[in-house]
Amino acid sequence: MKRATTFSVVALLASVSFASGSGVGEDLRAEIEELKKEIAELKKAQSKINLKALKRQIREVKAHDANDNIKWSVDFRTAYDTIGYEYANGRSDWNGIFTNRLWLGMAFAPVNNLVFKGLLSYYKAYGQLPAPKMGYNFFDWIVNETPNPNGELRVKEAYWLYLGEKFLGADIPWTASIGRRPATDGLLVNYREDQDPKSPIGHIINTEFDGASFKFNLENLTNISGMYFKLCMGRGLTNANVRYSGLSVNPDGTVTINNMSGADYTKVDNWSNTDLLGFIFVPYDDGQYSLHTTGFKAWKLPGVVIKSQDANGNLIGELEQLGDLYGAAVSFLAEGIGDGINDFLDDTNAFISFAWSKTVPKGDNQMLGMTMMTAQGPMVIGARPGENKSGTSVYAGVNWPCKLISDARVGVEYNHGSKYWRSFTYGEDTLAGSKLATRGDAYEVWLNKDLIGKKLSAQVRYTYMDYDYTGSNAFFGNGGAPIDTDSQLAKMMGAVDKAQDLRVYLRYRY
């Protein structure tokens, strides 16, 4: 366009020059000739430019920027939780807590079939806790200006993911991944968390761990929509000592020397690795209706065993490995109900899930029980020494687009757990306790609202847990013993009978 305009100007000047007198015309003709020479030189220079090569160089620069640099994402949430507990003895506690949670996401893909992903996490209540563990040198008001030996920014996820097109020559796309797993906020739980689901089925597993996974897409092989099989494995506890494990610091500042050998990372006496092996199998998923199954076994799980009582009546216990756990779940999911009945049903999600757990103690251990000494002799509560116990849980929910508020969704969820139900949902983000671990009934209603798309969103969520038995949020051992919350013993212990959590948050994501 610019070149055409230049030629038009030249033509106009030429016509003007011929219409003018000889003096001015000669000057104009000289200028026109000079312009012609410059235009010819520009055309000659332009012809030497290799546009294809230039475009290729630009593409390479863009590819370099895309592949050779870590891409960061931000997820920052400020929440206020009103938490209430009602105890079996009639007493109650209430508190309000402000929290900040920051997730810094990382992604890096040096080649098309190899990806690194990571997530750094910072999660903290507003203000300093009344009894800082590290002493006042690390008080919240100055903690970022003093050398802190522990730090507060933690690695939540860090793993690489390999994507293969064929497995052993068969038409089976597959993936392999090793690292700190994306094992919280999985399927079903992700709706209320307002995010894409991560690896596990959230009904039975919602906790961080280190391990590996291998996924095999069977859709091409079987011609069944969405079918895949995923093998998962992880390690929850290691059997290794820490460095300088032979030294321990006493409360008065003196040092006790237990071992002077100088050996590091040796095995802890009478301790083994705590490992988990499981699978996820999806027999069908057409994008609307899907069926998800999972099963696992965890070995050598820890729990607290009460050994004695001090002069003040406080119980003294030790952490021991007590036995194994089996778990399984099957979940049916509908993302859209019916086929074009109306827009509301097209955008409604519903699910129902059933889960099962079974404890298998080693020897005479009590994985979900305890033995108390009374005037009449030993009294067993819950599982007897060496006794296996099975538990079950049902989880259902539905969520839909809110008709009263634009760009918002409403969800209602319910779950019930039996007397000996035990889940791996210790990482569930509910400050009053994991609702999915409830031995009893849990009810939840939530509203998620987009304020500026997903960049800035809000949530109002209410969770109510009505416990039939104690031990819902415990690990294993004596703390996991199910005591009827209506019993006199539960009242004497001041056991929690009901818990609730009203949460309001603002969340920024980019």
Strand-helix topology:
Blueprint: H1 2-19, H2 22-47, H3 51-67, E1 71-87, E2 92-111, E3 114-125, E4 154-164, E5 174-180, E6 186-187, H4 190-193, E7 198-201, E8 210-217, H5 219-222, E9 228-237, E10 247-249, E11 255-257, E12 274-285, E13 289-309, E14 315-335, H6 343-346, E15 349-361, E16 369-374, E17 377-382, E18 389-401, E19 408-417, E20 440-452, E21 456-467, E22 476-477, H7 488-493, E23 496-509
Parallel strand pairs: 6-7, 13-22
Antiparallel strand pairs: 1-2, 1-23, 2-3, 3-4, 4-5, 5-8, 8-9, 9-12, 10-11, 12-13, 13-14, 14-15, 15-18, 16-17, 18-19, 19-20, 20-21, 21-23
Could you please describe the fold and organization of this structure?
It is a single chain. By secondary structure, this protein is α+β, with helices and mostly antiparallel strands. Helix content is 15%, strand content 47%. Strand 18 (389-401) and strand 19 form a beta hairpin.
Short synopsis of the structure:
The protein is α+β, with helices and mostly antiparallel strands. It is built from seven helices and 23 strands. 15% of the residues lie in helices and 47% in strands.
